[in-house]
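ok new one. same drill as before - structure tokens go in, u give me an amino acid for every spot. 336 of them this time. try not to just spam alanines like last time pls lmao
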């Protein structure tokens, strides 16, 4: 490893930024795993981490899918919640107000069935104080296209993000949340950035299924569900690596199976400027703060004076080549 500055007696500088939004710490909750953060407040001070990414909010209240909604898998978990939530008005009056009163930094995740609904949500949030960034969950079904997921089509993904960017305060960054269930995640990333995304959240859960061998039927009422947990971490790190190699100027909030500080460090070295901790909170509610503390120790042990010095460090010095759009891509060898 090349020589680096001494982290100093107080440890490395953990401050980071996601486009125009600056944060004193790099670890966030992950959308969908702790609602709006209230459930975790008894276990640690939410102001000590980077912030809370809320559960994805829709325009109207939504009851979600029938039970059973969750199933354990090897090194992971399947969920089929169905975007259950109180709707935007209740969220603003109760959850956002609660977070604002406690000075918690907030990334509001929104989800819509159409590009127009995404735009309506952005419009409703436009003048609300206390929002540091908007996460556009384009990994939900696109009702207008008979079940197509926005994030699996560059045009649909760009349309949803464009609607949000047009109706969001220019000082508030818009982050597009990408699905791993695509052939070329860089192409989707390129489309949403062209549509106005200031940064990326990646990755969302990947589609999976479990069959109960006693009942001989699907374990989830919704048949399929989103796979999260350590099982998807290598996929997530790969996705972050590929997108950062192609668009190193775009900030990434990385997530997918992070349980420890060393897991988080993998994402940072691949190119993430911050990380989210999700499934780990189900058996360790203090996981976001613990991971942040472990990440700080891991950075110090490796001689990094700051988190910023480590972002994308794993790619430095490796050969690159321009792709057809002139973007930089790492040269890869494969036996496959």
């Amino acid at each position: 490893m090349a020589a680096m500055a001494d982290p100093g007696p107080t440890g490395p500088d953990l401050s980071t930024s996601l486009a125009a939004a600056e944060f004193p710490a790099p670890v966030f909750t992950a959308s969908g795993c702790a609602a709006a953060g209230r459930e975790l407040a008894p276990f640690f001070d939410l102001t000590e981490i980077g912030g809370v990414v809320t559960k994805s909010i829709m325009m109207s209240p939504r009851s979600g899918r029938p039970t059973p909604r969750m199933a354990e898998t090897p090194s992971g978990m399947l969920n089929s919640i169905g975007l259950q939530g109180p709707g935007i008005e209740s969220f603003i009056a109760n959850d956002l107000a609660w977070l604002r009163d406690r000075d918690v930094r907030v990334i509001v995740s929104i989800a819509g069935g159409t590009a127009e609904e995404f735009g309506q949500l952005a419009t409703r949030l436009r003048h609300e104080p206390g929002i540091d960034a908007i996460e556009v969950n384009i990994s939900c079904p696109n009702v207008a296209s008979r079940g197509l997921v926005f994030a699996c089509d560059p045009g649909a993904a760009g349309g949803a993000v464009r609607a949000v960017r047009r109706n969001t305060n220019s000082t508030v960054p818009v982050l597009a949340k990408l699905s791993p269930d695509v052939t070329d995640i860089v192409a989707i990333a390129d489309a949403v950035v062209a549509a106005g995304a200031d940064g990326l959240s990646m990755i969302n859960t990947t589609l999976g299924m479990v069959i109960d061998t006693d009942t001989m039927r699907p374990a989830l009422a919704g048949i399929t569900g989103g796979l999260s947990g350590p099982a998807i971490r290598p996929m997530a790190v790969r996705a972050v690596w590929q997108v950062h190699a192609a668009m190193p100027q775009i900030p990434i909030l990385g997530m997918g199976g992070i349980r420890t500080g060393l897991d988080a460090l993998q994402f940072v070295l691949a190119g993430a400027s911050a990380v989210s901790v999700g499934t780990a909170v189900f058996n360790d509610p203090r996981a976001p703060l613990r991971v942040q503390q472990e990440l700080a120790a891991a950075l110090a042990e490796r001689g990094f004076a700051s988190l910023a010095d480590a972002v994308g460090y794993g790619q430095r010095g490796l050969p690159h080549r321009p792709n057809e759009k002139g973007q930089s891509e790492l040269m890869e060898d494969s036996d496959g």
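The two ends are 30 Å apart (CA to CA). and btw The helical segments are 88-101, 115-125, 154-166, 185-194, 233-246, 261-270, 287-301, 307-310.
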